[in-house]
């Protein structure tokens, strides 16, 4: 028998083969791509192609208070400090988190609580053919189709870390979808939830990079038209900063100048900016001295902020005929004195002037004073230059020798004019003093302050926000509700012109208003309305304290001249019923959009019932109270009948039943009992209307004396539920999801409140098509309603008109 002999170095060969097989095994398990049917959970992670970044779940806190987050970190970082977290506001309480691609192609994080969280809610996939990848840049992307077009990417939603290639700035300018991209610090070094510091481009001066802490801001860099001057001085050679300005975008970004290293910035929970560099596998924090300790002469690229005293002094000389600058602040609230203060506090600023002919807005100059004086005569601006500009001009060889004489003439003329003005003011002081005091008081009224706050809210809702609203939007803090004057509201609606009417309900008409190019909706309560001051106060107090993407935003109110007016964000697509029950417009609601609307309403309702600081029962959910924004996202509105529940309060009773016929639960309509389950009933009716495209209150069936609820249940019981689906949206790919919605809706409209699912259950089941649901019981109000009883009901409850009475609990 032939024997097999091994060479002397067979041991080494065996080790080599073992290493190769281990490497192949490792490479087979380590992947950068997540496909449908796969998931990331436990210790499973994604690793970028060159093993630079890693994505998975990480833990914070001790064993008794641990929270889990989906995040990205440098694979070679021994501390695994995340540079991005997907669920920083929604931590998972244990290690049961799972990241997967849902059947509709979107990324979802789920856990044992079965409360799904969409990773990409702002940019949804349009098909189920998607996959996600972790790139060597640290960007986590969701791509779609064979062309792998990017649907969503984590770089659009940074956390506290700025990586090379990330962008900080404003996008879609000039449209109604303006987007602000900025960094937000962690709450603490070990808690990833949003902290109180924000780094971004100033809304009023898009060339300035700043850090905000509530209402206090500090500029840390600016673009002067040629270079970006930054807070850091000694480390500028490591980065290639750039400022990009296009037709609809302004943003700041940077790249590494060295190919053998990666550098990045972190906004710390204390508001500091730390710079890090990784060479090979070594990560170090770069020492970068603050520019306040460096003279401007020795640091041309260093921005001097908030100095006590500048080298050229803090006095400014007025010169005529200066050219325009490309560094400006467009805010209409800034006068020339504001420009003075802003330039005076920045030693890098050598001059300022007004941006507009009316003296508002600011333009700033950062070049040498001598360079500015060389260009005098090239423009029409009146510029204020730091230091003794006349002395500088005299030393400038381009200035003529008659400059000194001209200056004396100017000084003499100015002195004479001031003398004449002083005498005139002294003579007329008594006559004008009353007017001046009145004007001063008028300018300081709370109405004006409310108007300013209202304009800031408009900016945050429809366009670039200021620093305060930017921090508040991140931290979701309450704001003082602006109270506008009736004259201001009248002006914005063109004196309540019929041409501005958006719609009308039982409360009165809704008008379209406009101020400074911003649109909003004005809800004017009619004096004939059943709603009174209590309902008005109820809605103001409730909705102004609620903030959720699926709740309409209240911007202000007016309580003047016996008027009761509410001002909301403008919803371009009006209410859901205007689409759903219109023969032509309903075709715009395909099945994906309808399912998305159902899920959005459920998320808003879950927030009201469970996650808001106030536990709210809406009591008047219906399709006309679901508004649609520009992207057809649903927002729950009209909180005039809403009630606050205590922590341990399960249900309440009212002596006077109010609401909308066709949407009320039986226990509320008959006994005046209401709870979260009464809202669930109303939501079930809305779901049936969305699936069928038919209105419950006007539904008629020639073969049966049933309403829409009874008709749906009979079809379901006979396995003909598909017949209820609106033929406009029914196709082979949508049947399964729509039948699931039909099943959930029938569970929601069951007669007994305890049989109906909770809001959490509804949200969970909507995201899981494979849920094992119980069969629905016969719905309430499904039998024939006596005609006389129907008339009696409609005497109290008019279709699509809401009335409200508020009682103490």
State the CATH superfamily name of the largest domain: Transferase(Phosphotransferase) domain 1
Shape: globular
Count of discrete domains? 5
Second rung of CATH, namely the architecture of the largest domain? Orthogonal Bundle
- Give a short account of the largest sheet: 5 strands, antiparallel
**Residue share in β-strands:** 15-25%
Key features?
5-stranded antiparallel sheet, Agglutinin, subunit A, alpha+beta, 809 residues, globular
Give the helices and strands, then pairings.
Layout: H1 10-29, E1 33-34, E2 39-41, E3 46-47, E4 53-60, E5 67-74, E6 84-85, E7 98-101, E8 107-110, E9 117-118, E10 130-134, E11 140-144, E12 149-153, E13 161-162, E14 168-171, E15 179-181, E16 183-188, E17 191-201, E18 208-213, E19 216-223, E20 228-230, E21 239-245, E22 249-256, E23 261-267, E24 273-279, E25 282-286, E26 316-322, E27 327-329, H2 336-344, E28 351-354, E29 362-365, H3 369-374, E30 381-386, H4 389-395, H5 403-427, H6 429-443, H7 446-462, H8 467-475, H9 486-492, E31 501-505, E32 508-515, E33 518-524, H10 533-543, E34 554-558, E35 565-569, H11 576-580, H12 591-611, E36 615-617, E37 626-628, E38 634-636, E39 643-645, E40 651-653, H13 666-671, E41 673-675, H14 676-692, H15 708-717, H16 735-748, H17 759-766, H18 787-796
Antiparallel strand pairs: 1-10, 2-7, 3-4, 4-5, 5-6, 7-8, 8-9, 10-11, 11-12, 13-23, 14-15, 14-22, 16-17, 17-18, 18-19, 19-20, 21-22, 23-24, 24-25, 26-30, 27-29, 28-29, 28-30, 31-32, 32-33, 33-35, 34-35, 36-39, 37-38, 40-41
Helix pairs in contact: 12-14, 12-17, 14-16
């Amino acid at each position: 028998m032939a024997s097999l002999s091994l060479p002397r170095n067979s041991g080494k060969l065996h080790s080599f083969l073992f290493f190769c097989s281990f490497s192949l095994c490792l490479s087979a398990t380590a992947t950068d791509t997540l496909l449908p049917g796969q998931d990331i959970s436990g210790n499973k992670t994604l690793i970028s192609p060159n093993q630079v970044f890693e994505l998975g779940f990480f833990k914070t806190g001790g064993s008794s208070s641990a929270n889990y987050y989906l995040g990205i970190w440098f694979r070679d970082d021994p501390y695994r400090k995340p540079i991005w977290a997907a669920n920083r506001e929604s931590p998972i309480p244990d290690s049961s988190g799972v990241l997967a691609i849902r059947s509709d192609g979107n990324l979802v994080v789920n856990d044992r609580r079965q409360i799904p969280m969409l990773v990409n809610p702002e940019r949804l996939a349009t098909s189920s053919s998607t996959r996600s990848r972790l790139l060597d840049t640290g960007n986590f992307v969701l791509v779609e189709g064979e062309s792998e077009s990017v649907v969503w990417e984590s770089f659009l939603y940074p956390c506290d870390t700025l990586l090379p290639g990330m962008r900080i700035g404003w996008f879609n300018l000039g449209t109604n979808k303006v987007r602000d991209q900025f960094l937000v610090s962690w709450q603490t070094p070990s808690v990833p939830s949003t902290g109180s510091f924000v780094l971004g481009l100033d809304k009023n001066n898009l060339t300035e990079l700043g850090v905000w802490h509530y209402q206090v801001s500090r500029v840390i860099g600016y673009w002067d038209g040629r270079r970006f001057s930054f807070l850091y001085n000694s480390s500028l050679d490591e980065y290639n900063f750039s400022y990009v300005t296009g037709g609809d975008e302004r943003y700041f970004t940077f790249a590494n100048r060295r190919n053998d290293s990666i550098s990045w910035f972190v906004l710390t929970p204390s508001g500091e900016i730390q710079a890090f560099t990784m060479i090979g596998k070594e990560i170090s924090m770069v020492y970068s001295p603050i520019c306040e300790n460096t003279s401007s002469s020795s640091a041309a690229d260093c921005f001097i902020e908030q100095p006590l005293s500048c080298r050229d002094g803090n006095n400014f000389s007025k010169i005529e005929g200066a050219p325009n600058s490309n560094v400006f602040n467009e805010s209409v609230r800034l006068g020339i004195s504001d420009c003075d203060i802003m330039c005076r506090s920045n030693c890098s600023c050598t001059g300022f002037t007004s941006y507009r002919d009316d003296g508002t807005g600011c333009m700033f100059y950062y070049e040498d004073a001598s360079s500015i004086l060389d260009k005098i005569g090239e423009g029409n601006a009146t510029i204020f230059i730091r230091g003794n500009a006349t002395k500088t001009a005299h030393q400038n060889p381009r200035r003529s020798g008659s400059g000194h004489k001209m200056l004396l003439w100017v000084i003499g003329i100015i002195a004479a004019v001031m003398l004449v003005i002083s005498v005139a003011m002294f003579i007329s002081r008594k006559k004008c003093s009353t007017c001046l005091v009145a004007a001063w008081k008028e300018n300081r009224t709370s109405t004006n302050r409310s108007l300013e706050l209202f304009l800031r809210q408009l900016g945050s809702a429809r366009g670039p926000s200021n620093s305060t609203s930017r921090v508040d939007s991140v931290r979701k803090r309450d704001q003082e509700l602006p109270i506008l004057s009736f004259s201001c509201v009248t002006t914005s609606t063109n004196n309540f012109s019929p041409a501005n009417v958006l719609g009308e309900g039982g409360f009165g008409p809704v008008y379209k208003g406009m101020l400074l190019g911003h649109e909003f909706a004005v809800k004017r309560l009619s004096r004939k309305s059943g709603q009174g001051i209590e309902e008005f106060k109820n809605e103001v107090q409730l909705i102004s304290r609620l903030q959720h993407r699926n709740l309409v935003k209240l911007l202000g109110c007016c309580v003047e001249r016996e008027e009761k007016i509410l001002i909301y964000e403008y919803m371009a697509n009006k209410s859901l019923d205007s689409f759903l029950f219109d023969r032509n417009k309903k075709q715009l609601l395909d099945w994906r959009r309808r399912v998305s609307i159902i899920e959005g309403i459920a998320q808003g309702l879950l927030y009201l019932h469970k996650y808001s600081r106030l536990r709210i029962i809406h009591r008047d959910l219906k399709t006309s109270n679901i508004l649609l924004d520009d992207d057809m996202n649903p927002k729950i509105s009209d909180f005039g009948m809403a009630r606050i529940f205590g922590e341990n309060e399960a249900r309440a009773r009212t002596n006077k039943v109010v609401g909308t016929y066709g949407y009320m639960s039986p226990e509320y309509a008959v006994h005046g009992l209401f709870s979260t389950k009464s809202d669930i009933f109303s939501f079930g009716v809305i779901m049936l209307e969305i699936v069928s495209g038919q209105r419950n209150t006007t539904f008629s069936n020639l073969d049966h004396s049933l309403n829409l609820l009874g008709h749906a249940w009979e079809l379901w019981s006979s396995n003909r539920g598909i017949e209820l689906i609106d033929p406009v949206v029914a196709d082979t790919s949508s049947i399964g999801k729509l039948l699931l919605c039909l099943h959930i809706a029938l569970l929601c409209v069951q007669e007994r409140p305890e049989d109906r699912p909770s809001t959490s259950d509804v949200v969970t089941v909507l995201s899981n098509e494979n849920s094992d649901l119980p069969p629905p019981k016969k719905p309430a109000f499904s039998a024939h309603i006596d005609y006389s009883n129907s008339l009696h009901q409609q005497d109290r409850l008019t279709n699509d008109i809401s009335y409200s009475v508020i009682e103490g609990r």
